[in-house]
Amino acid sequence: MRMIFLLLALLSTKSFGQDKKDFVSQETQLNLEGAKEVASRVEAASKKLGKKVSLAVVGVNGETLLIYKGDQVGPHNTEAARRKAYTALSTKTATLELMRKATANPDTRNLAELPELLLLSGGVPLWKNGVVIGAIGVAGGGSPENDHALAQSGALSELGITTK
After folding, report:
1. Rg from Cα positions in the chain
2. Which tens digits make up the pLDDT trace of 109-135?
3. Is 126 within 8 Å of 163 (Cβ atoms)?
4. Cα dihedral sign for 11, 15, 18, 22?
5. pLDDT value for 28
6. What's the pTM?
7. d(CA 85, CA 64)
8. Which end of the chain is more exposed for a tag (fewer CB within 10 A), N or C?
């Protein structure tokens, strides 16, 4: 009899437990060490191009993990890099692509009016296993194409961290 009662008690707890919610998300996010490696790769790529840039790396919640101003790079580029990274993270879209889509479509032109978004090339989201884990922004590379390519060079593809 005790065995039957115990078995029923266990079964009922299991079935009730399946409906229980824990209300906690399990986020994968880029950490500071990862942000430093991303920045290192962008810096190496910028040296190959002969460019000095400012860059920023933001975490999954938009917080700035790393930011720096390159030597002889205009001071406005530091904030531009941060906002490009934030925009890429927030929209889960490379800012070059977002900029082109927004200017081509009258319904999305107002995106440029949102205070934190910056629709300039050079921001890319960082993805791992189909989830955005952070973003990088680059400014001061001399052209929209350079800023975009430099931001993409921050991928850690051997670790499954991509910019696409």
Report:
1. 22
2. 777 778 888 989 999 999 999 999 999
3. yes
4. negative
5. 87
6. 0.83
7. 9
8. N
